[in-house]
Design goal:
- There is one protein chain.
- The protein has three domains: 10-237, 3-Layer(aba) Sandwich (Rossmann fold), CATH 3.40.50; 247-331, Ubiquitin-like (UB roll), CATH 3.10.20.600; 336-421, de novo design (two linked rop proteins).
- Helix content is 41%, strand content 12%.
- It has 18 helices and eleven strands.
- The strands form three sheets. A five-stranded mixed sheet has the order 8-7-11-9-10, sandwiched between helices. A four-stranded parallel sheet has the order 3-2-1-4, with helices on both faces. It has a two-stranded antiparallel sheet with strand order 5-6.
- β5 and β6 form a beta hairpin.
- The longest helix is centred in the last third of the chain and has 18 residues, at 356-373.
- The structure holds flavin mononucleotide (FMN).
- The site of flavin mononucleotide has 24 residues, from β4 and α17.
């Protein structure tokens, strides 16, 4: 029996639409019995521009980290021209704390395939690539099986559902590089080149895969599309927070009793996610800090969580971002210097090396942090650490540099006292920084 994990009280709170608790939903027959591929049929009866309008009206915002409005992104694709057009569905999912697309591969892969087909129809695309994290062996096999079944049911390929529309879907496996989740590196990787980010402009909608117009969307973003077409944009726009609506897959990890991926409307308070959905903090300990949206988002203090909600605006106002809704919870006993040192090591390891500030700066951040961790840093290293982070932020081709700088900057701003306490030359009677 295959069921997505769900909260015991979830049925009374929220009806899952991305990961419904239907047994064996990953099987094509089960998916179709529940009405699956009905949204595709509906979309094929609409004009492509009507589908884009519907997605625009739904206010769907990308689930890949930047919250960019999906319908608007789709409308950037040129309507005229003779060049091929491509869709890349981004399932690289390599950011620490982020593991929600995996649930779609496992529990509802046909929703993703159906969404991919609708997106292709809307944008006049005849080939889509689903880029999947290379380490996801089990989930690659599950997705391949689902795609084979969709092909043999003539839902993908030539003349889909006798509509005259033809499109192909290919699965492309990554090879273990976080940078290949960045959209332009992803395209280079598909082309067989080194996963280096490209300079923008030109943007992918003009010059993308093999120099052709391309749209890149996250797996969860695309999985929302059949729901919008089936239930209508008005329904979708009314779910959760009005400016960032819809169902959201929230991955909770760290110090909670029931870590996992929970589907909920956007806008649920972070404290409710921790205490109700995820079973609270083990031993009823206090919360020292949380990282709300995957390791690249800014850390928040536990005391500052009252009233903060899991949506783009609320987290922005709180000084962080929703990112990929990968909520990492750290209890009162957590050694935050150890946490940030480990995060910094990840970014150092994953920097592609193309831009000097990131290539050199991420290593420098990590080395400085190991000094703090070992209790060998000097007071002047606190300012130096911030200076190095500030010199990476905004000075690189892609956002990996920012992703490396933000956790360090925010940890320093929020918990400066912890850094100062780990220095060798801090006078014992020095006041603790706020
Ligand atoms: C270093 C780096 C890694 C990224 N990794 C992913 C990823 O694994 N999955 C993803 O969807 N987006 C990732 N992104 C964001 C993509 O560049 C892109 O914005 C996203 O796929 C767009 O999808 P959306 O509009 O549906 O959110 C990453 C960005 C950076 C800078």
């Amino acid at each position: 029996m295959m069921l997505p994990p769900s909260h015991p009280d979830q049925a009374t709170k929220w009806e899952n639409v991305i990961l419904p608790p239907t047994k064996d939903l990953h099987k094509i027959d089960v998916y179709r019995q529940g009405g699956g591929y009905g949204a595709l049929k509906k979309a094929l009866a609409m004009k492509p521009e009507e589908v884009i309008e519907e997605v625009k009206r739904s206010n769907l915002r990308g689930r890949g980290g930047a919250c960019f409005p999906t319908g608007l992104k789709w409308s950037f694709m040129p309507k005229a021209g003779t060049k091929a057009k491509y869709l890349c569905v981004n399932g690289d999912e390599s950011e620490p704390g982020t593991f929600k697309d995996r649930q779609i591969f496992e529990f509802n892969p046909h929703l993703l395939i159906e969404g991919t087909l609708i997106a292709c129809w809307a944008m006049g695309i005849t080939a889509a690539y689903i880029y999947i994290r290379g380490e996801y062996g089990k989930w690659i096999r599950m997705l391949e099986r689902a795609l084979e079944d969709a092909y043999s049911n003539r839902l993908v390929g030539e003349n889909i559902l006798d509509s005259g529309f033809t499109t192909q879907i290919y699965i492309h496996k990554g090879a273990g590089a976080y940078i290949c989740g960045e959209e332009s590196s992803l395209m280079n990787s598909i082309e067989g080149d080194r996963g280096y980010p490209r300079v923008k402009p030109p943007f992918p909608a003009q010059v993308g895969l093999w120099g052709c117009p391309t749209t890149i969307n996250n797996v969860e973003t695309i999985a929302n599309v059949p729901v919008i077409i089936e239930r209508g944009a008005a329904w979708y726009a009314g779910v959760g927070s009005p400016k960032h609506p819809g169902p959201l897959l929230v991955g909770v990890s760290g110090h909670v009793n029931q870590p996992g991926v929970y589907e909920m409307p956007t806008g649920v308070p972070l404290l409710e996610i921790i205490h109700k959905w995820s079973g609270g903090v083990p031993g009823h300990k206090g919360i020292k800090a949380v990282i709300p949206g995957g390791s690249s988002t800014m850390v928040l203090r536990g005391e500052a969580l009252e009233g903060v909600r899991m949506d783009a605006d609320s987290l922005k106002a709180a000084g962080s971002s929703v990112g990929t809704a990968g909520l990492i919870v750290m209890d009162e006993d957590t050694d935050l210097i150890a946490v940030i040192t480990r995060i910094a090591k990840f970014y150092y390891h994953e920097s592609c090396g193309q831009c000097t500030p990131c290539r050199e700066g991420t290593g420098w951040l990590w080395k400085l942090l190991t000094r703090f961790e070992a209790g060998e840093a000097r007071m002047s290293d606190v300012a130096l650490l911030m200076d190095v982070a500030n010199n990476i932020e905004g000075n690189t081709i892609c956002a990996l540099g920012d992703a490396a700088a933000w956790p360090v900057q925010s940890m320093l701003r929020q918990f400066r006292d912890e850094f100062e306490r780990r220095t060798v030359d801090r006078p014992d009677d020095a006041p603790v920084s706020a």
